[in-house]
Amino acid sequence: MSIEENRMGIVVSGSSNKGVEVRLDANTSVEDMVVGRYVTIEGQKRRFFGMITEVLLGVTDLNLTQTPPDTKDPFIAEVLSGTSTFGTLQVMPYLTIGGDIESVVEGPQPVKTVPSHYSAVKLAEDRDIELVFGKEDKERFWIGNPLDMETKLCINLPELVKRSNGIFGKSGTGKTFLTRMLLIGMLQKSACVNLVFDMHSEYGWAGTSEKNRSVKALKQLFPSKVAVFTLDEENSRNRGVSTDYVVKIGYNEIEPEDMSLLRQTLNLTDPAVEAIYQMRRKFGNEWFRKTTELDDSEETKELLNRLNIHESTFQNLQRGLNAIKRLPFIQEHTEKKAVSHTIEYLNRGINVVLEFGRYTDITAYILVANLLTRRIYSQYRDKTEKAMSGSGETPVPLVITIEEAHKFLNHDIAEKTIFGTIAREMRKYNVTLLVIDQRPSGIDEEIMSQMGTKITCLLDNERDMDSVLSGVSGKSELKSVLAKLSAKQQALIFGHAVPMPVAFQPREYGSAESYKGFSDKVNDTEQAQKDIEDLW
Amino acid sequence: MDNHQASDEIRLKECAVNTEEIERIGEVIESATSCFTAQCYELDRFPALGALVKTQNSTRQIYGIVFNASTEGIDPGRKPLARGKDASSEEALYEANPQIAKLLKSEFEALVVGYKEDDRVFHYLPPQPAPIHSFVYLCPARDVTEFSRSFEFLNTILNSSVTLPHEELIAATLRRMGLVQEDKHAFLVAAGKHLASTLSGDFNRLRTILERIRE
């Protein structure tokens, strides 16, 4: 192994805080260097792994910039390149591995120092990436390739789902594809069940690519492990999706806490929210039906007086409740409770994708997501607490996927919603979140900082970038990487599940070939063949 | 001078063919640690500017680079006079005044840039200056390629306190050395890069040299 072979430069200065400066050798073209690429640095005693965070041009003498030489002459250009004019890189070292056997066994450790002067720097090779991220195995899932590399980038999924995670990116940058792939990974490699609140019906049966091509989603790839629930049976039928259960929500299933979350979307005033609790005390489980049925009679007025609710407050409340009542999946009576049904599936280890069909209205989404999650979470909490006391089994870890997360987790309501609680309490009760959002700046700071792993596609709003990178060391360096991701099919992952941040190109998804690697029976070529036939 | 330089180059190339042949061109008449002056055996038969010359004795060869050449009267008090008013050609002038060759002398100065001892070349000053009356030889191609494997001598020229045209001399030296290299372009680029790092803070000097050695 020769270091000199693919050496591209040497370390000339550095700080443990801001990273090291690498001067490129004359024969390394600065144009081949890409922000976000991986490099290894051979220090005297240890190896460092880092990421290129900036590429700069330098000159030894200011005269070169003020009176540029005749660059048409190839001789002069050749002499000057790499000597008087040169490229430099800013490299942020993230991990280090010592030279002795003990350190090699221990694996890469977070970096606490910098490589010494003139340490050789070279582009990371496949085996370096493998050393850092591990090979694809029963726990590690191949999510894509580091930028400009052929190596498989793998992440440890059981580790990933131990914390709440976020996927961010502008609209159209590939969040949905990334999420779908990650969900598949969880199905394949981690012992967890998923509950997906699928706002745009893209994860259950089939999704669409930007080119309007239909791509398979979870149920098609894992028929035995996934159940598709729908709120909109007709829509699902029209799309040819075979659903396992049609979710209907009874009036008596709605609790005041579910309403308080809708305060913003329904334009409820604070007194109106307070009135809901009073109604609940008054009418018990039937509060929703009874409140909406109250008419303009004297009796009502008397009741309101007694409860000390102002009439305008009551009108505000009724308007809100009626908006909910109009949602077709809200019914007076339901045969079976959606909550218990969902939990039954989850307990059997079957992943549930809840399609919203045409009800992509945010009111419906927040109501249903919050309602189900709150019940499920409390059941999980009970079970986990029992398990802690030794009188039951620990429930299977649950990952709840929510879209448009800033509506649930914004600063005003994050404290109150169940999602805020889950995000903060993390894995204590074996429930974590997978948050998908395009405006991360809308999400409460505290929750953002508690997220374990963040995967972000391109963001171009300054506040969004700051919010995604909050609490990350080397923030400004990562920011420059993030800002330079291409608009499609590139993402940056950092946090708990990966030893160091990495910009990567997500694995291909959507071709018949790609399904082979994703489907339930990885080695079953017959199944793959069948899939291919099905597709065409 | 041009004619001389051209013929010099031809000689150098001839030497390159027959590597054993070395040509004696003069004798040291003034010697110091950092430079020496030699008198040519024939009037106006100078080595070229930037040529690598050497003195040789049993233990040590001292390398010098020619940086100045001059012809003047033997007696410093008597200046040569113009004599060719009626001569038909310069050759005719010499024929008519055979004493010229005896009354004038040609000298050149060489900057000491290294030495060779026990078959090893050192690119720094020798412990002693060249002995007076040492014979001075024009280095054959073999010596030039051997000596030019390292560019340290460029630093010696650049940093020399002897009054000499530094940039011109470096350019001339590199041009001449380039003639005997297998890959002239690569040689000049490598030398250029060496200079670029040495003169990293002085681009104007670097530019002057590069302009003079580009092909």
Protein architecture, described:
- The complex is a heterodimer of chains A (536) and B (215).
- With 536 residues, chain A is of the alpha/beta class.
- Helices cover 36% and strands 23% of the residues of chain A.
- In chain A, a hairpin with a 3-residue loop joins strand 3 and strand 4 (46-59).
- Chain A is elongated, with a radius of gyration of 28 Å.
- The two termini of chain A are 48 Å apart.
- With 215 residues, chain B is an alpha+beta fold.
- Chain B has one domain (2-213).
- In chain B, strands 1-2-5-4-3-7 form a 6-stranded antiparallel barrel.
- In chain B, a hairpin with a 3-residue loop joins strand 3 (52-56) and strand 4 (60-73).
- In chain B, helix 6 (166-179) runs antiparallel to helix 7, helix 6 packs parallel to helix 8 (203-213) and helix 7 (184-198) runs antiparallel to helix 8 (203-213).
- The two termini of chain B are 21 Å apart.
- In chain B, 33% of the residues are buried.
- Chain A binds chain B through residues 26, 60-61, 63-64, 69, 73, 75-76, 78-80, 82-84, and chain B through 185, 188-189, 192-193, 195-197, 200-204, 206-207, 210-211, 214-215.
